[in-house]
Amino acid sequence: MNIPVAWSVVLIVTALWNLLIWPRFWQRIVADPRSRDADGRATKFLTVHTVLIAISLALALSVGVLGALTLI
Q1: Would you place residue 2 in the very low, low, confident or very high pLDDT band (cuts 50, 70, 90)?
Q2: If we measure between CA atoms, which residue out of 14, 1, 21, 29 comes closest to residue 62?
Q3: pLDDT per residue over 7-60, tens digit each?
Q4: Given phi > 0 = left and psi -120 to 50 = alpha, else beta, which region is 23?
Q5: Are 60 and 18 in contact (CB under 8 A)?
Q6: Distance from C-alpha of 56 to C-alpha of 72, rounded to nearest angstrom
Q7: How many Cβ atoms sit within 10 Å of the Cβ of residue 11?
Q8: What is the distance between the alpha carbons of residues 46 and 27, in angstroms, rounded to a whole number?
Q9: Is the Cβ–Cβ distance between 71 and 3 less than 8 Å?
Q10: Distance between CA 56 and CA 2 in Å, rounded?
């Protein structure tokens, strides 16, 4: 696939940004009192955010791989 080098760099930077930000956000979500009920079970708040973060990290990896492959 041929795309300009600048776009490849944008994809890689976007991936790195997401891989840096989402794990830190995850730490805040887990520490949030809304994440667990009185019995210590995960709430919908935690479940929804877990899914969103997992999808975002998967997309970040995909975009990063795409950016790296277009540089080769």
Answers
A1: confident
A2: 14
A3: 999 999 999 999 999 999 999 999 999 999 999 999 999 999 999 999 999 999
A4: alpha
A5: yes
A6: 25
A7: 21
A8: 11
A9: no
A10: 25
State the amino acid at position 60 in one-letter form: A
Which amino acid appears at position 32 of this protein? D
And the tokens for 29?
Answer: 């979500």
Residue type, 31: A
Judge contact between 56 and 4, C-beta under 8 A.
no
DSSP 3-state assignment of 36? strand
Question: Quick check: helix, strand or coil at residue 3?
Answer: coil
72 pLDDT band, cuts 50/70/90, is: confident
